[in-house]
Amino acid sequence: MMKSKADEEDYWNSSKFKAFTFDDEDDEYSRLKESKQAVNSIRRLVEEDDDEDDVERVSWSGEPVGSISWSVRETAASNQRTDREPTFPKINTDTPTISKSHSGYSLSSLFKAGKTRGGNFQTFTDPLSDSSVRLYAPELRKPKSEYKDFVSDWSPEETVHRMQQGKAVSLEKFRSLQDKLLLLDFGVSAHDGNVITAVLIYLKRTLSKEVLFRELESRQTALRHFIHYLTETRDQRLLLELLRALGRTEDVALLQYKEHLSIADENKRRDFLKSCLSLPFSPEDSAHVQDHYTLMERQIIIEATDRQAERGGKVEIFQKFPRRASILNMPLITTLYYCCFYHYTESEGTYSSPLNIRHTFRISEKQYFVTALAARAKLKAWLDLDALFTSRNWLGFTRKKSPLSFHRVVDILQKNSAPTQVLQEYVGLIDDADLRISLAQKHKCHDIVINTYRDLKDRQLLLGYRGKVERGSAEERKINELLDNPQIRWKN
Amino acid sequence: MAHSARRDSPELPDFSLLKRLARDQLIYLLEQLPGKKDLFIEADLMSPLDRIANVSTLKQHEVDKLYKVEYKPIISTSDQLCFLIRPRIQTVKWICDVANADKAAGKFRRYKIIFTPQKFYACEAVLEEQGLFGDVTTDEWAFYLLPLDDDIISLELPEFFRDNFLAGDQRWVRTAGSALHLLHSVYGPFSKLYGIGRCAKMAYESWREQVEEGETKPRQAEIGNVFLIDRDVDFVTPLCSQVVYEGLVDDIFRIKCGCVEFGPDVTSSDKSLKVMLNSQDKVFNEIRNEHFSNVFGFLSQKARNLQTAYDKRRGMDIKQMKTFVSEELKGLKHEHRLLSLHIGASESIMKKKTKQDFQELLKTEHSLLEGFEIRECISFIEEHISRQVSMIESLRLLCLLSITENGLLPKDFRSLKAQYLQSYGVDHLLTFANLRQLGLLVEQQPGETLTVMESKVGKLVNDKTAGKLTDAFSSLARKSNFRALSRKLNLVPKSDEEYDLRVPRDMAYIFSGAYIPLSCKLIEQVLERDGWTGLEEVTRLLNGNEFAVTGANGADVKAKSDAQRIVLVMFLGGCTFSEISALRFLGRERGYKFIVVTTAITNSSRLIEALLDNHV
């Protein structure tokens, strides 16, 4: 075992590509022998049957002639198909089957015709009839040249059916619009996305855009496949044309807007965003895109100034807290945080002033508070917090106010490791007594707990709390004084 | 094996056969390219490949060096290159670049692409376009099903979800049908199939056609019943926080292909450790389905037992000690290792969850499910957003709000969207467009607007049947009707009753007794009623597309065979570990055994991530 481990490690060539390991199983080897036997026996079977060369042995689908599933299928096909009831019934899968919109040729009418009149339309009504199966089952083993003549005789439905099974087909003979659309509609009613896309690729090649777009408009399923195909192949130009033709203007706008993501250079990105402003967004989204552009514009200015300031080494805050990343392409709130961190005291006239950002982007009071709070707490600028929360009424009295509940404020402060003294102040401002006590206990704001119990005149709780504070501490002394105070009328 | 099942519970079929089939076929394909070759493997195929083969297997079939597909120029000196990839256009384009670069440099090599589980015409069209059709040969490796555990089989196709439900591309429908066909031909014949959802219906049709094309030999069935369900039938369940151990581990550490990587905080050493999580892990097997609140107690009990077993050594004589060492010690050590790992994981989970106010988060989720105190929920979400707590989490809560409330009030929608874009970037406009298209995050529409739009487009669409029209619009106008469904199916137990999580009384235990997963409840009801009779109102609220079909041999074997109590549930678009736990619970209660087949294991993060569009 050890040896094989070492072997495996050597096995990884020392390129920069990362190696990965497989689990080792003990019985691997015996299983391998089994597999090999199985495989060898299959190969013998293949060699008897087929002596085309290697490359030729792959059919359109690439179902390797001789694979396990191939041999399974071959055996199945060579067995005589007996007449039997289908074991499971066909259910209606609600696909917008065959449209007669512009092709003027409805398959649903074909179905009806087949049933009533019989005759010509037999193959449409019963796609799985024995005859059609027999038709293609045996010829798989014939050389290609022999069955080529057959290819051109398949109906659209048979062609779709063969494509589903991964067999060789030729679409070139479907030249009339009617035939092409039949092919597409049968693909859709077979629920096979692979086939639908295959037909669409053929249609894209052989139909003008105008005709193709027109026909797709009434075929939602096929249309979605086509859009997905164009997205995957990154055929942006055609996709935009298609969406425009369909009148899906919002999609057009979003798709074009998306392109900015692949522009790395910030100035080019900004300019691109500017060009997006005229796109047909919904009024609501249009405002968001405008904000995006404005923000990008600002970030470029702020970044340039700050980078210089940082390099200059003269601005203290950049020395004390070096910037960890560029502010470019960050969300608005991150930018606000950044500005509250590095540019808090700037007057509203500058681009980087938090107040300016707040006004330009219509940031709500609450949102502004949360962000400023977090930034100043990170810097441990507790005095700024004081100022942030203090409001003065017309008589000149000050009081603390917050658009955010004070227990959240405490939470944010605590996460920025505020000292107990600071925490205490804000815990004390929590209105709800229970919440106040539980947070005070959690953050060890002893004074608040003690004072609250005193106000509640709860001697028992105070006694209990004495056990939780440090021996000989100021808190303990305070509790003792209170307990000894004859003036207090305890309720218990 | 530690099955805590009812005594009369039937045995599960042996799925290791699927692995062997896949391996044999891969070996065969490798032999199609004789001689030494370098193998390039797509990143997301490596773990699945790991589960069925190993390096020496590949080496024996003349694979020289292994590389990961990285979309960069390659460094390889081999004159034969083999690529094992998913059928994706971008990967094929990269291979074309490689081959064309060789051509330009006058280097001659042979190239072979092995697509798995199947090839797509669109991929071959790329080869043709690039003038390489024929120079690059292609093959298919029909590796449809990977057994992750005794009762979980995965197609490992996470993209199924986005392709099918968001893009409306049905390329994987036949894949699902073929996977079912494979199971049917090895473990069938099935006697009854139930299902709900558009994709489920199509997958059924595809399977049925494949059955008719082939020949089934009469055999003793091992799986009797099948239930197919689309992910978009129930989006609520995968959007909820998971609180059952296995689900929680997946939410926090991300289980990948049945395997999880525990970091140093769990292993309490400086190394990370990759661990397989399945029924072979005895400790894990006993706690995986437990509500997290029970796990600690269980683990400490287990630790005490272990201690007692170790303590037996005291007072042993030499001979006893020798037997102890040779017979028990190894097992004890193994158990000890597992135990300390899961204890470490639980601790780490606790730490992470207390840090992010998990309790409050759960409270909000439960309120949403109940439809209670919605304003408080909205302000909780708002705060989440404004504090820039995880971008995914915020989106998940928004979606949960939208589905449970059947859309947001226009005022709320606008304000929450604006705040979201401010906190996480305006690029998410694209994400919002996706979520709207899928019906996950929408504005409440006054009834008329929709009708106007439908009739407007109705003029363009020529299909007459109304149902078809609704289908075309299902993505735009899908209504969740969650509240009504919840009432009809009693999904939210009355909140005034105590719920003992140690002795679960129903599947709601997987969500702390607050909610019975809709998907699993449907399965329970349909199995109980042997069809959809009596559930007409429910299926109407779920936008229809339900079916129940019987095979020819369904009726006669029904009564006696064990296979009738083996139920295969196939989730199209992914399922969560919580749902699997719920089904295991249901199985124990009713004497069924469930086998879960899923296109991929999902959870709230994966679901949301699949819909993000703020990257190139």
Automatic annotation (TrEMBL), chain A:
<dbReference type="GO" id="GO:0006886">
    <property type="term" value="P:intracellular protein transport"/>
</dbReference>
<keyword id="KW-0967">Endosome</keyword>
<dbReference type="GO" id="GO:0005769">
    <property type="term" value="C:early endosome"/>
</dbReference>
<dbReference type="GO" id="GO:0005770">
    <property type="term" value="C:late endosome"/>
</dbReference>
<dbReference type="InterPro" id="IPR040057">
    <property type="entry name" value="Spe-39"/>
</dbReference>
<dbReference type="GO" id="GO:0007034">
    <property type="term" value="P:vacuolar transport"/>
</dbReference>
<protein>
    <recommendedName>
        <fullName>Spermatogenesis-defective protein 39 homolog</fullName>
    </recommendedName>
</protein>
<keyword id="KW-0968">Cytoplasmic vesicle</keyword>
<feature type="region of interest" description="Disordered">
    <location>
        <begin position="73"/>
        <end position="100"/>
    </location>
</feature>
TrEMBL record, chain B:
<protein>
    <submittedName>
        <fullName>VPS33B late endosome and lysosome associated</fullName>
    </submittedName>
</protein>
<dbReference type="GO" id="GO:0005765">
    <property type="term" value="C:lysosomal membrane"/>
</dbReference>
<dbReference type="GO" id="GO:0031902">
    <property type="term" value="C:late endosome membrane"/>
</dbReference>
<dbReference type="InterPro" id="IPR043127">
    <property type="entry name" value="Sec-1-like_dom3a"/>
</dbReference>
<keyword id="KW-0653">Protein transport</keyword>
<keyword id="KW-0813">Transport</keyword>
<dbReference type="GO" id="GO:0016192">
    <property type="term" value="P:vesicle-mediated transport"/>
</dbReference>
<dbReference type="InterPro" id="IPR043155">
    <property type="entry name" value="VPS33_dom3b"/>
</dbReference>
<dbReference type="InterPro" id="IPR036045">
    <property type="entry name" value="Sec1-like_sf"/>
</dbReference>
<comment type="similarity">
    <text>Belongs to the STXBP/unc-18/SEC1 family.</text>
</comment>
<dbReference type="Pfam" id="PF00995">
    <property type="entry name" value="Sec1"/>
</dbReference>
<dbReference type="InterPro" id="IPR027482">
    <property type="entry name" value="Sec1-like_dom2"/>
</dbReference>
<dbReference type="InterPro" id="IPR043154">
    <property type="entry name" value="Sec-1-like_dom1"/>
</dbReference>
<dbReference type="InterPro" id="IPR001619">
    <property type="entry name" value="Sec1-like"/>
</dbReference>
<dbReference type="GO" id="GO:0015031">
    <property type="term" value="P:protein transport"/>
</dbReference>
